[in-house]
């Protein structure tokens, strides 16, 4: 598989995760902090991508920003079914190929979007049903994934197949009516066609723990149990003016199933909280080792499908917005590196201790062979908390190599974690989270928590 220039750094970071994390954290906050989204994300082995279109490739001012800032491209429309197979059996890859060529020439990886979706189907497919549609759909997956074999980092094999609302079930569509197994059939066909690509399920309104994301979670768990090839879940993250407080927890639960998570179509409605929401999404991804990359759904506000909402990181003139700076700062604050070949295991969750001294803490572990990421939730008791310290016993042979959203004293044995400047205050009954990465086995005992 082609390993592009910028991708090589990511791969190196991932392969020697512990050592590189320690090294990259040490430069954060110095004059060496990365100055582009892609370079900063690469410090922890992640990509930072943008959705674009082949017709933009000749727009020099636009492309200068793309080439400067991003390490991954995704076709906003050029690889969809209506674009790649406008007539049955006649494929047009020209625009997708141009994007892939540009990415390869500039050291970027490519996300493939999307092989099967109920929307943007060519007219001929919309007119099919039953076995004819199933056969055509699987042929489409096979032909497109084969054409791009070896060139795609991750494919959105199936897009938006779950229903909105509280059912947690599938969306009705012509594809769904071919039988509930259409999704796994698509994943199996994609794996056969391109064994090197990560295969993702991608959806929206899944940006927290809710009925829809739980339905998808159950499907992924079932696929993993039955050996259906799935490697990643895409959270589109088309966000409004607030962020679900379970956003990171949701990422973590998918990661704990043994799949990667990618933020695939991020945009945030402009409002007073736009920058902080962008930053919170970035921090949440960085806090989960298996959250491997973020893609924004367009470059400038004027390019967005959300007309009038100005939901992106650059204004219409290509200037960096406050949201851009917030994301870059969050990326430069770091987080655990993406592990190379993690064997994810179910989370080990400590029981919540009684609330004494005004706060409690519990640890969730994501472990792999030789290391772990610990996510620690600090919960305030019946009174608001102003400053907290969490004590963790790190077992013999284990050492903390990096910490985010807190500052640690000590790296082995009894380690204490003091709040950062921005998360010391927790409202009564509320919580905040911090995390750390370590070598060896993670802490087993429930941590202590003290306020003040
Ligand atoms: O290219 C034709 C042009 O020739 C024609 O004159 C014009 C007339 O309407 O249409 C143009 O096609 C449009 C296409 O974007 C390219 O601009 C389609 O009408 C329009 O429907 C299409 O919208 C895209 C939309 O998906 C389709 O559902 C948006 O650009 C794209 O941002 C959006 O992306 C989706 C993701 O794929 C999945 N998740 C949600 C996300 C936002 O809706």
Q: Can you give a write-up of this model?
A:
The chain is of the alpha/beta class and 452 residues long. 31% of the residues lie in helices and 25% in strands. The chain has 13 helices and 19 strands. The chain has helices spanning 5-15, 17-27, 37-42, 60-69, 81-84, 94-105, 123-126, 130-147, 182-193, 211-226, 247-255, 274-287, 322-332; strands spanning 47-52, 72-75, 109-117, 154-159, 198-203, 232-235, 238-239, 260-268, 291-296, 359-368, 371-380, 385-386, 388-394, 399-404, 406-409, 413-419, 425-426, 431-439, 448-451. Strands 1-2-3-4-5-6-8-9 form an eight-stranded parallel beta barrel, surrounded by six helices. It has a four-stranded antiparallel sheet with strand order 10-11-18-14. It has a four-stranded antiparallel sheet with strand order 15-16-13-19, with no helix packed on it. Helix 9 links the parallel strand 4 and strand 5. Helix 8 packs parallel to helix 9 and helix 11 (247-255) runs parallel beside helix 12 (274-287). The longest helix is centred in the N-terminal third of the chain and has 18 residues, at 130-147. The chain is globular and about 65 Å long. The N and C termini lie far apart (53 Å). The model is unreliable at 1-31 and 340-356 (pLDDT under 50). Bound molecules: ligand G3I. Ligand G3I binds next to loops.
